[in-house]
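ok so for the tutorial part 2 we go from a plain amino acid sequence to predicted structure tokens. step 1 is just haveing the sequence, like this:
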Amino acid sequence: MVELAAGLIDVFADSALTGNPLAVVQGADDLSDDEMRRIAGEFNQAETTFIIRSTCADWKLRSFTASGAEVFGAGHNALGAWLWLGELGKLGSLAIARTFQQEIGQEVLPIELELIEGRVHGRMRQTSLRLSDALIDVAPLADALGLLLNDILCEPPPRPADTGAAHLMVRVRNPATVDAALPDAGKLLAVLGKTVAEGCYVYAFEADTPSVAYARFFNPTVGLWEDSATGTAAGPLAAYLAATGNLQNNELAIEQGTKMGRRSFLHIRLTPEPELSGAGIIVLRGVIRL
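step 2 — the prediction. this is what the tokens look like for a chain of 290 residues:
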């Protein structure tokens, strides 16, 4: 019998049962891909992250959705795993900020952790912005999202942006329009299938408060219908807004998950790459026996 430490942590949360829940499994070195997928299905969370020894970084992370799709990029899947390790004292003293290296897919990326007022906070750098072609015809997109054509704004235009994972950035009229979105999975899959984007990030911001956005995230391509806090979408959004002259002071705060009853806050600073920061709350600790 094999026993693995595991649990749940609410990421980008200031209190339990908010933010984005992440399942974490430690000591996963000897698990097969099939076992990881089945464990992720057992947890049935948006993502489950497995912590594995690395030959080129402090730790290697692999993340799977409940449907078994492996996902990459440095989002809540990565930040939550490090917050888990830090909160359980597995990283030593964090009284002074310390930088660690994480292997995710083909990338090795830094993450800085620090104990602030009794809680571990993480700051995680993503890769440089990569942009793909903007959508020319937005009518199918509006239809897929259950919105009117004039609900979708074209400054900046809907466009896939990538700082670790490519997602379609879609600006709409206002926060009420974000909440009014009622996507059709088949239609949205068809729209995304014609782009390099994996998921769709629907967002709004007001001209007088360009450093604050309100968003929802849909990713039917990996079986994730709606996500309450998506770091791999927040990072490219901030970078895309900056690249198009729509961001002041290189900082962006995003409220996400409110429509789901899981209000989350993501903070991004461009350094010049996106740096995602947040904290979490461990809500469950246990053991997996295989």
